Amino acid sequence: MRKDWDTYFMDIAHMVSTRSRCPRRHVGAVLVQGKKLLGTAYNGAPMGVPDCSEAGCMISEAVEIVRVDGVETMVKKQRCIRTIHAEQNLLLFTDRADREGSTVYVTDEPCWTCANMLANSGVVEIVYHRSYLKDTDKVHEMMGQKGIIFRQLQAYEPPRETVAYEIP
Q1: Signal peptide span per the entry (predicted)?
Q2: Is residue 144 within 8 Å of residue 151, measured between CB atoms?
Q3: pLDDT tens for residues 59-107?
């Protein structure tokens, strides 16, 4: 049976994620214009710099105040700052003209920083597989404000050979 386009491009994003050497999360992203693949990227340290598997993760902690049902709660967030995210690398290595009106397929829902960058990149749609709960509410709200189609492939099953690279 022939795969639909969403499955085809998400499969490629998952295959790209296997290049990541991050021990915490392997993320892949692809840029698509129509049915044409224009670029791929994965998360990792800058070229020529030791990555997390060599030098360890560089964890930064931050506290954010979240309001739920009128009650403010402090939420601690940990992020690795050694790694350039897949979406950031995709934007660094593709041309603005190619991104205008395009779609990004990414294995994981973009974090707040990546969502901000994608919102200004010219893309009109972002399709992701796994949720990233730390930033999901504000990312969804911003994408709605920007008019960017933002959707999750919920029934999607990644290629078998990439499952070993997924981190719960």
Answers
A1: none
A2: no
A3: 888 888 877 788 888 888 888 888 999 999 999 999 999 999 999 999 9
